[in-house]
Amino acid sequence: MTPARFRWGLMFVAVGLAILLTNADVLGYDYWMELFWLWPLILIAIGIEKIFLRTELKFISYLAPLLLVGAMVYVGFVTEDGSCYEGSYSSNRWSKAIDSTVNRIEAEIVHYRSDIRIGTSHSNLIKARFDRFSRKPKIDFSQLDSVANLNIKYRRGGLDRIIVMSRRRFDNDWSLSFNDKAALKLTCLGDDSNVDLNLKSVPLEELTVDNDDGNISLEIGTLVPDVFAEIKGDEASFRLRAPEGCGLKLYMSDENYTDYLDPLNLVKIEDYYISENYDSSEVRLNLELDDRLRKISINYY
Questions:
Q1: Tell me: the pLDDT tens digits for 214-225?
Q2: How far apart are CA 136 and CA 133, in angstroms?
């Protein structure tokens, strides 16, 4: 039996078993997405086989297919590891019910170049949707007393790395929603992406966004009296929509943003700018802006 016959025979057996396990709901359909990402291993295995085929180490040619089978087994264990994907998953969705005792959510989202949209969920759920042609990010959720912690981290690879449709936007959209009951501390870390934060109906308390060369849009509401936000990003643009009458305190460079400061009628005090109605306003936004931003826009609704 030649190494090639052994390779293809072993592959057919392994794929057949994987299909049976998928039909039996032992493996999820996302297993095949993860497996496809490892397609270069086929080239590596065939290359090893050809190198040693006519040498004294010919037996290594028979071991190369085991590399492929080992990869299939490894992916099967990884995709079915509940510690990485806690909650209710389909091929591109995740959700988590929030206990009634939770009064604060602390979330950190590392989305790299994926465009992200965050809004409101009018239920006790945190919901997320990820494009079905991207690798699912690593998600960790935990709760300690009345505080829930959510960490979502982009994982490199996936079909968007194999078939590049656009060099400008080769990643896929994420959509998340938080409930309108628990206070939110949110951190979004990305690069060259669109960040759309429609948090008008979310009790946002603290926000940090870092997004070089990206576009950042933020809308806040009236659910929290004091909101603290820090916006960072080299050559990024930032657009804010705040409720009419919102008190505003800005920590920013007057040298870089003089043109944007004039229409706001803010008063400079020490190292910040403040609106005249800040102390008497029912909603106050404390905003720190990076000196490297390309453009800012502040409007009221």
A1: 999 999 999 999
A2: 9
